[in-house]
Design goal:
By secondary structure, the protein is an all-alpha fold. The protein has eleven helices and two strands, in the order E-E-H-H-H-H-H-H-H-H-H-H-H. It has helices at residues 12-16, 22-31, 38-56, 62-71, 79-97, 108-125, 132-149, 155-183, 191-210, 215-238, 244-251, and strands spanning 2-3, 6-7. It has a two-stranded antiparallel sheet. Strand 1 and strand 2 form a beta hairpin. Helix 5 (79-97) runs antiparallel to helix 6 (108-125) and helix 8 (155-183) packs parallel to helix 10. The protein is globular, with a radius of gyration of 23 Å.
Length: 252
Amino acid sequence: MLILGLRISRPKSYIAAQPVPYYALCFRALSNGQFPEKDCLLPLISTLLGYAIVAASTTVKLPQILKILENGSIRGLSILSFELELVGYTIALAYCLHGGLPFSAYGELAFLLIQALILVAIMYYYSQPVSTKRWMTALMYCGLAPTILAGRIDPILFEALYASQHAIFLFAKIPQIWQNFSNKSTGELSFLTNFMNFGGSMVRVFTSIQEQAPKSVLLGSVLGVATNSILLSQILIYRKPKSRAEKEKKKE
């Protein structure tokens, strides 16, 4: 580099001090027939799992969407739960977008948000006539969501919104959990979608710890594990065996 017109070369010790990426250390160890050390192996696993969740999230709500379309019914499903979930995804994605987190730590939120929008639209379609209150709620969301996603709100309000989104996700599950308990049935609730949600929350707890994400992000993942485990348990407990007539009809 040039200092006062003189070219000064960097000492070798400076070059050696440059950090080596963890994935390079892991591949170097494996190429030498050695097992990678914990300090480079855990970050690599965390990154791979993070991108695996992002990939899986592209279809996580597809089983629920297909189940509704196949049966033409939203029997046993709480619309309020899915509406609150949509709001939660919007706030979480906006916060992560403007919080400087790596894409592998939040990328699934973008795909979940799109699928949640489609799911709510389908639920509105199968719950005709849609009440004026729901139309007003939908219009309000369409008006506020772009502003939140663009980050064009006061930073203090942004933090407050993100802090509240954990409560939003929690309360999004409660109406569905209570409806399942009251009906002693889970209706058209998809086991596969809830199982994937549970698995994703488990993995996200690990990646949040490894990526040193804010404690609020970790809290959200822990709450996701708890609520999704309850829904999975209800689906298994209230599942009714198919009658012989239903089985024969399916074969035809």
